[in-house]
Amino acid sequence: MGPGCWLVRMKIGIVCYPTHGGSGVVATELGSALAENGHSVHIISYAIPFRFESFRSNLKYHEVEVTAYPLFRYPPYDLALAGTIMEVAQQYGLDILHAHYAIPHAISGHLAREMLNGAGKNVKLITTLHGTDITIIGQQRIFQPITRFGIRASDGVTSVSAELKDRVLDTIDCGAQHIEVIPNFVDTERFKPGCCKEKRAHLAAADEKIVMHVSNFREVKRPRDVVQAFARGTRDIKARLVMVGDGPEVGAIRELVRELGIEGRVNMLGTYDAIWELLPQADLFFLPSEYESFGLSALEAMACGVPVVASNTGGLPEVVEHGVHGTLHKPGDVDAFAASIHALLRDDATRTRMGQAARERAETKFKREALLPVWEAYYEKILAEPPRA
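Below the sequence we write its predicted structure tokens.
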């Protein structure tokens, strides 16, 4: 039976974080796409993911309830998650549990299967590695053996880029040579050029170019470099920096903007769920991260026909080709980023050509309709394998 030719639709549990980070977006949109294709999908998390589509057929949300108790300094979320997974698996007869992140989701999924007293052997556990679980959490001494165990306990393991797969094999002795690389996808019908043109007037004046940055404002995203490079690269250009998101670096960014005297040229919008309305308004998308295992926000900008200036780190070169869809530079090289911003904002023809190439790449390589059958085929392969001993 080939991909997309299911006689019996699969029952899939997806465990993810509900926050604005890329892993939660990927997990939720994969769940929505699978539900639209006729599979029964159950999203399990401690809050409704921000891109969760309520009232969609075949798609249910299950909240993990964590009760505070004086004995616990920190409520045991991983145990509450395991209990919720077990209940969902029992009630709905899950075929697959798809954990996005090894810690704690894969561990909780494995524990849930053990608690099912043998019945859980029929529930296949797939873990998708998104980056943070390997590059930060998984490299801490206390978490390395736990991460290794979660990967080994999984029936299938995927990573969002080839670079992340290589990093896993280099840094964690998990014996997971079978890691499958399945890149993130983008809904090119939602993220597309020309959407919501009326929004542009709310972001910048008609004669201003827009440089946009979207992130969770952690240090790894290097948001201070965003401000510094914009200030240096647009000294003689009418341009506005639009920063979308929230996080621990916001206060420092506001202070830096004041120090540089560019308050009148920077808009800090906070979080904005319908980001597909804003991205098409940008002339450039700027992502100078220290590390990105994939770079979903860059892909979403590309789908909107916006060229990308970004770091040549992690999986970003697998998404953005330097000189074709934008430019890539070494993380921290503010002068190089500023030079690219200046050159591209000055060159309308090159910027337009790169934006068209970016849209084409999103449609040909990362389109949801192209990658959904890949996920279905992968699920089919894992389901066909005999239960683990």
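Confidence is low (pLDDT under 50) at residues 1-8.
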